[in-house]
């Protein structure tokens, strides 16, 4: 199935201006974006870039100033009343600070949207049990939010967001208040729900690592403009826009100045090799070095995963031998070669 035909969510020349006194804040310039059915789509940007504005337009918590927003082929900017309420039931949302009702138990928090939707007591009880089981909180149903850890609170938020069986889950900086280990477990839960339920997930974040772990595609926002978008592998491994590059360097804990200083210490041609998938594990470096007579020193490198796909990125200084034939041999083995000077 072509997940983009029709797309689950399509922004068509959507833009948003806010009026603040006499001034106009251009929160989002006109942008086009298509999010596929069953996709995990990330939107990354610094604070003030327009991420929340974009996310909150999907469930019309914010109304666009112009353009069309199609969900499953329907222009939702024209909806109100019952049609809008029905749309919102198809879209769950989770938040950075969880937004739980402090005076209600875990089970009551999850039951809340079901009560609003007019479900029977028996239906609600069954569904709440099922959801708490799914998010790993069955033993905590009677506790209050204050008795839970941050990760557990977010699991309650996820169970509540899924209560009415939505097609789309919006995640507003959902892991930004969590420590790294808890972040990993919440992201893993989101990935499982995406696979098991075919849920379309749109998440906004300022951390490239979140995008790298769970997203299929990503859009980069900078000062209200969409500056880059594509598959996470393409954008993460070969960022084009300076803002994207900074996010990637941040995620890799690389200091650009230190990197330049390191390069100044070596002679030879500096290249960055990018391996994806099985090529990551091939014993290629030694083989190419022996065949071409080229020596190398390693200036930097990382082996990791983008979602489920392994990748490696190595920065090498090459000296001696037949460098051109070495570069050809890398390219022939499906390794992307970039000359860094
Ligand atoms: P992000 O989520 O990336 O931090 P936002 O979407 O919250 O960015 O904000 C984008 C821009 O719009 C910012 O300049 C912000 O100050 C402005 N903005 C957001 N909401 C409002 C509002 N209700 N009224 C006026 N300006 C707003």
List the defining traits of the structure above:
341 residues, alpha/beta, Rossmann fold, Alpha-Beta Plaits, binds adenosine-5'-diphosphate
What is the compact description of this entry?
With 341 residues, the chain is α/β, with parallel strands linked by helices.
How does the SSE layout of this entry go?
Elements: E1 9-20, E2 23-35, E3 40-44, H1 51-58, E4 66-71, E5 74-75, H2 81-89, E6 91-95, H3 106-116, H4 121-134, H5 150-162, E7 168-172, H6 180-197, E8 200-205, H7 208-214, E9 217-222, E10 225-231, H8 232-237, H9 242-251, H10 256-264, E11 269-276, H11 284-292, E12 295-306, E13 309-319, H12 323-332, E14 336-339
Parallel strand pairs: 3-8, 3-9, 6-7, 7-8
Antiparallel strand pairs: 1-2, 1-4, 4-5, 9-10, 11-13, 11-14, 12-13
Helix pairs in contact: 3-4, 3-5, 4-5, 5-6, 11-12
Bound molecules: adenosine-5'-diphosphate (ADP).
Adenosine-5'-diphosphate (ADP) binds at residues 18, 20, 25, 27, 45, 47-53.
